[in-house]
Design brief:
By secondary structure, the chain is of the alpha+beta class. Helix content is 28%, strand content 19%. Strands 1-2-3-4-6-5 form a 6-stranded antiparallel beta sheet, covered by helices on one side.
Length: 672
């Protein structure tokens, strides 16, 4: 992925553009991010092509073809606009290394890897052909090697086998070296799915040898050899040579069918660790690159005065809040074996453990989507209650609507600034990708922050609009006036208060209304069979952790203090981490407390996991308000204190199983 240039778009349709994946004769392919945190590949057309009516017809057909194809080995279409001024199509994106790059950079694949590769490609082609389509351009650069197996991408010239009107123009469509003879000889047999089988044979040769079946030469030479010469299999293992030879027969009618090939190759997978280590290393690096940078480097150790790393976590006092049990105390320093280990410092980002395959917004910009949360019963008539969007609900907060809907019947608080009273709306900037704090469920925002914002809106007599934006763009957006507040599980730090994050200017400074306190948590199997209550109990144990996460660095620091090292099992996703504990392969895992508490309470009905002890080193989360807007800050702080006193605040936290993260009052700028 390459950084965006000045003239690259920052938004295409509903997707925020965060990088350039590549380009070609048709146009460019960008990496985009959806509102729910998914990454997508957005393919756009060059402007000169967009003016060509025949191209638009072809592109619309490509979109229609791709939308008809599904399955685990094909990248599904997420959205498209073939008739926009600049036509585009977005497909689901999973970090992967193209077969071209994998072979060129790491060498040919061994036979035991080519088999599951071939099996996955056969299933992908079966999904294509099941809809009467022919891919027509299966080649190494259109095949991604991912952690879950191969994926076929780019249906740029896929077309209906029943209708070739758009391709019968005297122009050969495809890639020389992987095109079947019938694609090259216009007076030859009709192009059918057998052409994809021919291309598969060429892909097998390339994957196993690093070269094509007709060598490496100019396109015209490769096309001549494909029609008039026999392919070469000198370097292939016997079984692969036989398979490729059958696929590369020149007469399409003599090539094996996909079912016959599937019977020879066997079922797809297993894909647990199917790739050679050099390719797997590249994939892990790509996953980290496309993962959330806020959880990568946000908590590097901070040197103390004597040059060693020091513990720098804030601890908020525990208390009883409106009937809510007091949060368990954080693990004290004397609870370790020896002195407390050097701990990573609180950095610029909210601590989180997201799947490494989820890309993060790394460019500034406004929100792609916005939702309105009503302060009353949800239908604009008043009298309702704030039911929120609890874990067992529909995912749509009660009182949700769309911007510009029926105005609230509530009376705006006279404590609010006049401009907010006049419009009756408070806009909250948030990166809605962090369950259970704020995320998209069933198409609407849900979570602790969403329910709290809803309750604050009702308390203040205004609507609350959530505007989704990249996390790193939230404070600059607040400074620019795009949001009234920022509420996104954002750690309250002195740097943020002063308008800087790791040397980067974020604005003129903010006030943070502290409303939450969260750190890390140990997660163990229900019943805690191994008696793990604190980090020191992990000595000599096997612990699951997500690659590139803060918890991974925390465990590295811990390993320097324990009598016996922790044995780490690393995974690319949070789900895999929890699976490892449930299936008794790891004794425990370490995760962000809100994520851990919510997962332990909801996974398998709450009967599979539990927390091992209380929070570790909690930090305050704050609602950010521009420093100059003291009236708004005080109105929100007072409203939050009223919610705490009334017990509504405690109910919201309990609803999401994070009651231990409660604060006893809405302090301002309590972070350090």
């Amino acid at each position: 992925m390459r950084p965006l240039a000045k003239d690259d778009p920052r938004q295409i349709g509903p997707f925020r553009i965060i990088g350039l994946l590549g380009g070609g004769g048709m146009g460019r392919v960008y990496l985009g991010r959806a509102a729910d945190g998914r990454t997508v590949a957005v393919k756009t057309a060059r402007s000169e092509l967009a003016d060509d009516r025949r191209f638009r017809t072809r592109f619309a057909r490509e979109v229609a073809a791709a939308q008809r194809v599904g399955g685990p080995f094909v990248a599904p279409v997420v959205d498209a606009a073939p008739h926009d001024d600049v036509p585009w199509m977005a497909t689901d994106y999973v970090p992967g290394v193209s077969l071209t790059d994998a072979v060129h950079d790491c060498g040919p694949l061994p036979e035991h890897v080519v088999r599951p590769l071939t099996a996955g490609l056969l299933h992908a082609l079966t999904a294509v052909h099941a809809h009467g389509l022919v891919h027509r351009d299966l080649k190494p650069s259109n095949i991604l090697l991912t952690a879950g197996g191969p994926r076929v991408i780019d249906f740029g010239i896929a077309h209906s086998a029943e209708d070739t009107a758009l391709t019968a123009t005297g122009t050969a469509l495809g890639t020389p070296g992987f095109m079947a003879p019938e694609q090259l000889v216009m007076t030859g047999p009709e192009v059918t799915g057998a052409a994809d089988v021919f291309a598969l044979g060429a892909v097998i040769v390339f994957a196993a040898t690093g070269g094509g079946p007709y060598g490496n030469a100019e396109p015209q030479i490769l096309m001549y050899r494909t029609v008039h010469e026999e392919p070469r299999f000198d370097e292939l293992p016997v079984l692969l040579a036989e398979l490729a030879a059958d696929c590369l027969v020149k007469e399409p009618a003599r090539r094996p069918t996909l079912p016959a090939l599937m019977a020879r190759v066997g079922a797809p997978g297993p894909y647990g660790d199917w790739l050679p280590e050099p390719v797997a290393v590249r994939l892990r690096r790509l996953s980290v690159q496309l993962g959330d940078p806020r959880s990568q480097d946000a908590f590097a150790p901070r040197p103390s005065a004597d040059g060693s790393a020091e513990v720098a976590f804030d601890r908020l006092p525990t208390s009883t809040v409106a009937g809510l049990p007091a949060p368990p105390p954080a693990a004290p320093a004397q609870g370790w074996y020896g002195p407390s280990p050097a701990a990573p410092r609180p950095g610029p980002s909210r601590r989180r453990v997201l799947a490494a395959l989820s890309a993060a917004g790394v460019v500034a910009g406004g929100g792609a989507l916005a939702w309105t949360l009503w302060p009353d019963g949800g239908d604009g008539t008043g009298g309702g209650t704030n039911s929120g969007a609890g874990p067992g609900g529909t995912g749509k907060p009660s009182g949700s609507s769309t911007p510009g809907g029926t105005p609230s019947t509530g009376v705006p608080s006279d404590r609010l600034p006049k401009e907010i009273r006049d419009k009756g709306i408070v806009t909250v900037g948030s990166d809605v990708t962090y369950p259970p704090m704020e995320f998209v469920k069933d198409g609407s925002p849900a979570g602790v922050d969403v329910d709290l914002a809803h309750a604050l809106g009702r308390e203040l007599g205004v609507r609350v609009e959530f505007a989704n934006a990249a996390f790193d763009a939230l404070l600059p957006g607040l400074d620019a006036g795009r949001f009234d507040l920022v509420m996104s599980a954002m750690a309250d730090t002195k740097g943020r208060q002063e308008g800087r994050v790791d040397g980067t200017k974020t604005g003129s400074g903010v006030d943070m209304i502290d409303y939450f306190s969260a750190g890390l948590a140990l997660v163990v199997r229900r019943g805690d069979p191994e008696g793990i209550k604190r980090p020191g109990d992990l000595s000599g144990r096997t612990v699951a952790v997500q690659r590139g996460s803060f918890a991974r660095g925390y465990l590295d620091e811990l390993n320097g203090k324990l009598p016996a090292k922790v044995k780490l099992r690393e995974f690319d996703s949070s789900a895999e981490v929890y699976d490892d504990v449930v299936e008794n392969r790891s004794a425990a895992c370490l995760d962000d407390f809100p994520v851990a508490a919510h997962t332990a309470a909801t996974r398998a009905g709450g009967d599979a996991l539990e927390l091992g002890g209380g929070q570790l080193d909690p930090l305050p989360y704050g609602i950010a308000v521009a420093r100059a807007r003291t009236a708004l800050r005080d109105a929100v702080r007072e409203a939050l204190d009223r919610l705490i006193t009334s017990g509504e605040y405690a109910k919201i936290l309990k609803r999401w199983h994070v009651g231990a993260c409660a604060v006893r009052r809405a302090a301002v700028n309590g972070g350090h």
